[in-house]
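Write out this protein's structure.
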Amino acid sequence: MITVDTLLTKKRKGEKIVCLTAYDFISARILDDAGIDVILVGDSAANVFAGEKTTLPITMEQMLYHTKVVVRGVKNGMVIGDMPFLSYQVSTERAVYNAGRFLQAGACGVKLEGGSPVVATVGRLVDLGIPVMGHLGLTPQSVHKFGGYKTQGVGEQAAAQML
C-alpha cells in the first residue's frame, strides 16, 4: 500500500509520482490495477460527474460518497479526498472536523486549495496526523475571484510569490 513514506522515498530517489482522479469504483479499480500511486477523489466531480459549471456546488456529503466508493476500488494506491468549497475555509476547527470525516470514509489524506490563507489550517491538520496535499496554480474554488479558470504563478514574480 502506498503511504506518505512511500511517496517521500520516491521523491528522494527522483522517481516519478503519479496521481490521477477517480470518482467511482470502476475507475478507481482500473487506476489502482495500473499502479497509480495517488488516486484523488476530486471536487471536479461537480463538473465531470454531475455536469455543474464550477466545482462550488459539490457538498461534503457528495464528496464523502465518492470517496467511499473510490476507496472500495483501491487496494494499493493512496486515496486523497478533495475538500470542497467552504469545508475548510470557514475555520480551522471546521477543517479538522471535515478532514477527519474523509479519513473516516477511508481516505488516506485530504487536498485543499490555497496558499498563505490556509497555512495555519494545513499546519493544524498535519500536526493532528492528517496528510495534506496542497493545490496551487489553478484554484477552481476561486473561479469568481479570478474571473474564470486562470493559471496563477505565471511570470517570475508571481511564481516567486507562490513559492
